[in-house]
Known about the structure:
Radius of gyration: 16 Å
Number of helices: 0
Helix content: under 10%
Number of strands: 15
Strand order of the largest sheet: 1-2-3-4
Order of helices and strands: EEEEEEEEEEEEEEE
Strand content: over 45%
Shape: globular
Largest sheet: 4 strands, antiparallel
Distance between the termini: 39 Å
Amino acid sequence: DVADAALSPDGRYLAYVADKAGRRSLTVRQVATGSDVVIVPPGEARVEFPSFSPDGNYLYYTAPRPDRQSYRTLYQVPSLGGRPNEIAFDVDSRASVSPDGKQLVVARNSLAPRRGRLIVVDIGTKQERVLAEVALPSRLLGSPAWSPDGERIAAALGDTGPGLEATIALFDPRDGRR
């Protein structure tokens, strides 16, 4: 019944999304003891994309907001439970947190015009900035990833043209230069 999972950077905790009969929950397991703590109880919301902060103290996940069911909202919650805090709206990927734990990067796709954007969010202020934009025939695939040294953000790009090629692009997190 596990739909998705993430391991904390130190390997001590495993966050997993369980899906039982269409009701999703988010649970954190202490790996050494096998002890589980339910962070988001089973419900109708489509909980997805768990990821940890670099220090393992926080967990990020997406779920629809009750008032906007067709969009994912990114939430931050203490790893062992607590009140979820909304960080960003309209998120289409797993969050990757910068090594200093102050920023995160996510993908956001739009249909009109068709383009994908890498969005960097300041976790403290929730201010967003568009780091890079990808337009057809390319599109963002999967989730972006922040390098451990903080110097690059990697993103998979797919070409929707006749070649159907994919590549990994590296972006500078300061100015979005590819």
